[in-house]
Specification:
Elements (H helix, E strand, L loop, with lengths): L1 E7 L2 E8 L6 E7 L7 H12 L3 E5 L16 H13 L2 H17 L3 E10 L1 H12 L4 E5 L18 E6 L7 H11 L5 E6 L16 H19 L1
Helix pairs in contact: 3-4
Length: 230
């Protein structure tokens, strides 16, 4: 596995890149949590490459602090993660993701089809990619702040798969209701709620990891990508 450099109007940033053994292949843009491009994100990329996809996770915090790579294991790391999250500009981040998506479409190993999948902060960004980019499909795992973005739902023209945790400590119950009601009947959105699960239920090794819920969500995601990107 390797890194690639993505250029944008503001400069350039790095991205972790995992290639499958057989190319050309469709690509998946993996969107980080608040812990940077860490081992969890790199492992997701590697697993997607093993499934036959080009997988790429760009450094969205590069304007604040390049090459952030922390875990969810200590209070100090959580504090740093929330500090970075507070300084992060979602609009700039969306532009960085769109630049990465364009690079993946043009990659010599790519078929030209590109989807995205994001977790936590990345789940929010995957929603924004569905509304603001030409990605072929998008997947959002327990996205945060989506209740404030429902005004953009009308711009979602490609398939969006969403995974929501019913007990998500970062998405209050009233926000969950707004999200479900705001997206109800949307022809391009499929929303699954995982009852009894908390935020980051699919993060292996995390405090709220639930193997059964993670397996269900990941199976749905795998089938979704196979259908949309083949």
């Amino acid at each position: 596995m390797t890194k690639m450099t993505v250029s944008c109007p503001d400069g350039a940033f790095s991205a972790y890149l995992a290639l499958p053994t057989k190319t050309p292949a469709p690509a998946i843009l993996v969107i980080q949590e608040i812990f940077g491009v860490n081992r969890v994100m790199r492992d997701i990329c590697d697993n997607l490459a093993a499934q036959g996809y080009i997988a790429c996770c760009p450094d969205l915090f590069w304007r604040i602090e390049p090459e952030v790579d922390i875990t969810d294991k200590t209070e100090a790391e959580w504090n740093k993660a929330f500090e970075l999250f507070g300084k992060f500009d979602p609009d700039k981040g969306t532009e960085d993701l769109k630049a990465t998506l364009a690079s993946l479409r043009d990659h010599p190993a790519s078929t030209g089809k590109v989807g995205s999948v994001g977790y936590c902060l990345g789940g929010k960004m995957a929603f924004l990619m569905a509304a603001r980019s030409d990605a072929d499909c998008n997947v959002s795992y327990y996205g945060v702040g989506l209740d404030e973005l429902l005004g953009e739902a009308g711009s979602i023209s490609k398939p969006l798969l969403m995974h929501m945790a019913s007990e998500d400590q970062f998405v209050p119950k009233d926000a969950q209701v707004k999200i479900r009601e705001g997206l109800k009947g949307h022809p391009n959105v499929t929303l699954h709620v995982y009852e009894g699960n908390d935020h980051a239920f699919a993060r292996e090794g995390g405090a709220h990891y639930d193997a059964q819920a993670a397996a269900a969500a990941n199976a749905r995601t795998a089938a979704f990508f196979k259908q949309q990107l083949s």
